[in-house]
Amino acid sequence: MFDLSSVPRLFMQADFCLKDLATFQQVLPLQELGPGRRTKKAARSGERGKKNVTSPSPNTPSTPPVSSKLLHEKLSQYLDVIEVHLAHQIAQRSDLFFSTLSSQQELQDHIMSVRQNVVELRMCLRDLDRKLTHKNLELMRLCSQTHRNSQVLQKLKLISTVQQTQPTIQLLLSTSDFVGAIDLITTTQDVLHDELRGVHSLRSVVFLITLSS
């Protein structure tokens, strides 16, 4: 009784629309109703429709004359068949549908949990970066700065020593210690041309040592 094949395929078409005159006349064949059941307006509409509608396909089975009551019962039967079929399909897929909804909710909860874990992990990494990496980088920077300061201090001590060589050379020359004076001059010249090369404040010292030599 509720076999879906009993419903004409016309009702299953995706472009089914009663606004289409040909479709309307196939669903409600007014020309096939009894004369007493048709109104004058319907008759006039049927006459106008005949002019604009192409003749049905030869393959389309002819429908025997039916009364409006019988047509109503037939359409109601089609509706019942479709409703039962839909209810049966929904019942078959309801478990899968609710299972899908449940899985979707679980997946959404899992995504929210993972998102929260990612946020917490980023905060933890940020704290570790601030506590470990930044401190290590700061320590390296301080060590490098200390090393540079130590080098500058050594240069300053060396400059101070070189600046004191001229009086020492004069003292050695005044005591006729020419060998010691020559050794000090040679050593000072080596330092000026090597470790203190380019120090402009020592130009006068270089000039005096050159004169002494």
Could you characterize what this model shows?
The protein contains six helices and no strands. The protein is mainly α and 213 residues long. It has a domain of 49 residues. The longest helix is centred in the middle third of the chain and has 96 residues.
Write the layout of secondary structure elements.
Layout: H1 21-27, H2 40-52, H3 68-163, H4 165-174, H5 178-193, H6 203-212
Helix pairs in contact: 4-5, 5-6
Number of strands: 0
Q: Give the amount of beta strand, in percent.
A: under 5%
Q: What's the total helix number?
A: 6
Oligomer: single chain
The computed structural class is mainly alpha
Characteristics:
213 residues, mainly alpha, 0% strand, syntaxin binding, transport, coiled coil
Question: In a nutshell, what does this entry contain?
Answer:
The chain has helices at residues 21-27, 40-52, 68-163, 165-174, 178-193, 203-212. It is mainly alpha-helical and 213 residues long. It has a domain at 164-212.
